[in-house]
Amino acid sequence: MHIQSPPLHRRGLAAVVGLIALVLALIVAPLAGPAPAEAATDGPCDIYASAGTPCVAAYSPARALYASYNGPLYQVKRASDGATRNIGVLGAGGYADAAAQDAFCAGTSCVIPVLYDQSANHNDLTPAPAGEQGAANAPADAAALPITVGGAKAYGLYLPPGVAYRRSSKVTVGTARGASPESMYEVASGTNVNSACCSDFGNVETDTVDTGAGHMDTLNLSTLGAVGATGHGPWVQADLEEGVFQGKTFVWTPNQGNASKFVTAVLKNNGVDTFALKGGNSQSGGLSTWYNGALPDGTDRFGSTWKPMKLEGSIGLGAGGDNSNRGTQSFFEGVMTSGYATDAAENAVQANIVAQHYDGVSTGGGPGRQIVGPGGKCVDVSGDDTGGNLAVVQLWDCKTLAADQRWTGSGFGDGTLNTLGRCLDVDGNVTTLGTGVELYDCNGVPGQQWIPQADGSIKNPASGLCLDAPNGNTANGTPLRIWTCNGAPAQKFQVTTPILHPVAGAAAKCVDVAGNDLNVNNQRVQLWSCQNVVTGAPGGNAEARDQQWTYVPGDQSVRTIGRCLDVIDNVTTMGAGVQLHDCNGVGGQHWVPQANGAILNPASGYCLDAPNGATADGTALRIWDCNGAPAQTFTLN
């Protein structure tokens, strides 16, 4: 059946001339230097509406997407008392009032329970429920992703695994159903991606269950399914359910990828036989068309096809339609429209985005952690967050917004350290003393295995050598190497920001907070079976957020879900229990890891302890005489 696109909305000649003038102004604007903290006259949704494909959902924590929008962008919820506040714009069509968030959340932490739809449809997003492939999702940390837009401070939406939003088609208004045409774009980060399924944005199933090919139409910016892909990932892809496609096929070699700090990703689908994918740098330039052609051929495991589409009309952000929520992204803005957008409208939207001067990437609770080495310099990748294969890994001044200074473990227990989608790698995978280190595609070879040691060194077990700054050099650009482990300052590296791995205790149990990720005071801290991701395939166990602990050397605190490990009532009595509580700097919240694996509370002189060596789930931890027993041995991964 032929589906006819809606006719273009007709305007008078003056309006057309005005639109052309606007587009030209937006294209020229990037050449004129940084913009003031004001929005463009028209927003992306005004541009789409003028082209006959109006927005049916529009989201951004950073700015208004209509020139006339003067409502809330998102809601924040305070950890200290559960109070909420809507964060709006500084003026109609303007940027987010980040100062209002900062004032409201001062002295505590906030999450984002609602991301408001700026369209008249009010398709607001809330944390996604549990589904076929993942547990219920948590709201995003409101302060995890500070940025600037138009020269004004704002926040992006950081969506690591287990953080996602959704609105069911049972209540959505205006979204495409069946074989109806639709278009969408998002601005996301090309440096916060992974190869796990699936951090999507777009049209998903009514319920969080895979209902077959063609039941989803979403954008996916990741390295998922990229074996055999060309260019440099991540790739702008379409998750059409039962497949993430770079083009007509899973891998489409003309699709070269988009790896800039900010990426504009575009998808449009006529619902019957055709779709297109585009990508561009949100900070400069235009869009590249990566694919424009037929929908995928064939049938899936259910016997379902992609031609025609069978859209259900729900909206998802940060997870797949079946709640596969192991992907990661940083989201800054995005819309869904009715109808198949014109190239001219998409080019004008890209020009509008570039004119906003997005800048800054992850920091604070954002993706990864800095590793501070000799001379207080950070482990860094040569180049400016570009991160290609063979890029030298070096020391450099620590930069708050440097994505290539934020390292993570893979989350699968294989001992890798990675940034910008690639792994810390010994050049040539050799074991020779003095070999340099680089960034390279993660491939599981021994030269990509790293184990932090108690003395602060980072060891490559295949060679038996440690990460080292040659001759103790600390100048910017000093290339790192592997060298005989000797405990010298040139081999001391300290993690200073969140470590997204459990603190493991006796019998491979994890330090856990009573209850299921309850973000409240006075919850007992205990041992419990570790609930980390054990596989990247569908069906992997979801991570428990309250087993993900951070050690902050500056205040000697151990933290999870926005609160601190705390000795109950701040006492110094042997046998006192421990709990989670608002961070307040008292002596009962100071902890110092010891070389033997113990965690000392200096105020009392006692160590974190599992009573009598108990290892059963629910064993409440306490402070006790430091004795070096297994009950006091904790490995901070």
Automatic annotation (TrEMBL):
SUPFAM superfamilies, sorted: Concanavalin A-like lectins/glucanases, Ricin B-like lectins
A Pfam match is: ArabFuran-catal
Coiled-coil annotated spans:
none
Q: Which GO terms describe its molecular function?
A: alpha-L-arabinofuranosidase activity
Disulfide bonds, which pairs?
45-55, 105-110, 197-198
Q: Which terms are listed as keywords in the entry?
A: Disulfide bond
Keyword Oxidoreductase carried by entry: no
Q: InterPro entries attached here?
A: A-L-arabinofuranosidase_B_cat, ABFB, ConA-like_dom_sf, Ricin_B-like_lectins, Ricin_B_lectin
Q: Name one GO biological process term.
A: arabinose metabolic process
Entry annotation: catalytic residues: 241, 322
List residues of the Ricin B lectin domain.
365-496, 497-637
Q: Which domain of life is it from?
A: Bacteria
Q: State the name under which the record lists this protein.
A: Arabinofuranosidase catalytic domain-containing protein
Species per Swiss-Prot/TrEMBL record: Leifsonia sp. NPDC080035
